Amino acid sequence: MANSSKVSRRNFMQQSALWAAAFAGGGSLLPGVASAAREKELNILCWEGYNSAQVLDPFRSSTGATVKAESLTNDPTMINRLRAGETNVWDLINVNNPWARKVMAPEKLIQPLDKARFEPFFDKMMPAFKAPYKWAMDDAGANLLGMAQRFGPYSFVVNTDKVSRATAEDQGWNLWNDPANDKKYGILESDDWNVFCICCIAGFDPFKVHNDEEVAKFTETAKRVFKGAKLVGDIATMNQSMIAGEIDFHLTGGTYSASPARADGHPEIRGVTPKSGPMEGGKGGISWIEITSQVNNPQLSPLASDFLEYVQSPEMSHKVAFAEGTFNPVAQMGNPECFKLFTKEELDAIQWDSLEEEMARSAEYDIVPDYDKLLDIMTAAKREASGG
Amino acid sequence: MRRLVQLGQGEKSAIPLLLFLLIGFAAPLLAVIWFSFMPARTFSLFAAPSLANYATIFESTSYISFLWSLGLAAVTVILLALICYPVAYGIVRVFGKWAMLLTLLFTIPLFVSENIRLYGWILFLIKNGVLLGSLKSIFGLELESILFTRTAILLGMVYVYLPFMLFPMTLGISMVPSETRDAAFDLGASRWQVFREIELPLSMPGIVIGFLLTFVLAVGAIAEAKVMGGQRIIPITHDIEIAFTYAQNWPLGAALAVLLMLVVGVLVLLALRRFDLDRFLGRR
Q: What is the ipTM of this complex?
């Protein structure tokens, strides 16, 4: 026994040398291995939906590939995963509209798509997405940076049995300036969007640099809004609380967050876009459009572009729109072949009846230049609201 | 090399495990500590270190979150001690053949994710939900829900951490020899005296382990305040999460985590100085 387990100096050094060689060789050998392996491997960093089995399984079985998708629910975290060095992990990143054009492309975190292959798909999308679509292109308008698919208005949600749609649209963000509404509302745990909403409640455009007076107004508004909230929580909690009567309305929200409740037989839960507000052109609401881009991965999987093309088909677009989690309109609904796949119930769930006017009343999501400062103020306000 | 030659067979064999522990356990911890000295909102570990993040924390209102976390954990421990001691006593001394069933009932929920259990409480407690909806339809009673209040957070914490107090206590009580109790009774001790002078001191190892385990876990609680409390309270763990996600301020999050580790570490060490586990366990 002693002999069999004996580790001589020579044995030990031999084994150590072998392991050291394996690790050292990794630098030159592993990429070759990885590259070959990546023919059948695809990694997607996305909002929920693209990671669902309904979307991924047909692609897995048709390509025989190992497809991994990680879902996160805020853009800054995903972008910073790439900044922190994960560009060699992911092949596709799916985030909201401004990030590809204004942040990821300039920072070389993503790489352009083959324009000849992908631009024709935009012509089959809804009119607002016709090529060259602003958020899919770089600043120079030369490179195609990603594909558009899901989108929607995203301001706030009301229970129309408690606050009528007309009242909510007319009062808009002032619903949160009325002391009578204290403890009647919730706040969705979506801190980046809540920064936008607090700016709107305070009466100024979120998507610009704010002066000292506006920052002071933001601070006061954030404290007041969080102090007056009945609860802060996730989408399920917001919808459940509105249906149960704990709250009458909540920010931030829209088709994306209200659709699961609507699809579940609660048409009284409705995303609302204010008729007017502080955004450029007097627009009252905010909208988002997802752009899916190819990551600047040194060993990008060849399946990345195949997957992007795969989700453009009418059938897959419909599946993406109604994947698990939340339900959303897709740009591909501009194609009659895709539109006819949506049932009346599905169109009701995504508020198709008011989609066009709500999008027209919404400013498109953009980068907030002083986001870090405003987020810190809002986080402190949230914390202080719990202190009293 | 010369040093390596002098290593015994055991030490050499332990090298892979030591390396594994260093890489898997010590390195991430050291990375978090080092990150806390990096400039705010950077993702690099190679900038000039400073104490700026700690200064930011001390200038901010983060103390509110620390106090909530420590306070809620302390109250949870006290409530659990009061609830669990009689139950543990019953399991060991009273319930007989039902003790196993009871133990199983307390264990089974551990197989279900904490979040799912907490959402179950939401459905139970929410306005027009299982409890209030039933009271309304059967008795016509319209009561306010306790959801999204501090009481709801405490209820969630007591519910989630109950097994972590109950089982060490059960072990502690089962360590008290029946002969010692019987002898005390034979010598004329009252029930109260037996409890105070025999059972409580001899079951103290289990009680202290239960206290420490529950306190350390409860200080790190986040889901109860988020789900059942509707974020009416922001515990320090939630502050850390915000720093690492929406704020993308990893160095600040790391500094908060280091401070939390320090505070909890000091409190646990103080408790261990007061209650010497080795002495309790009869090792000296």
A: 0.86
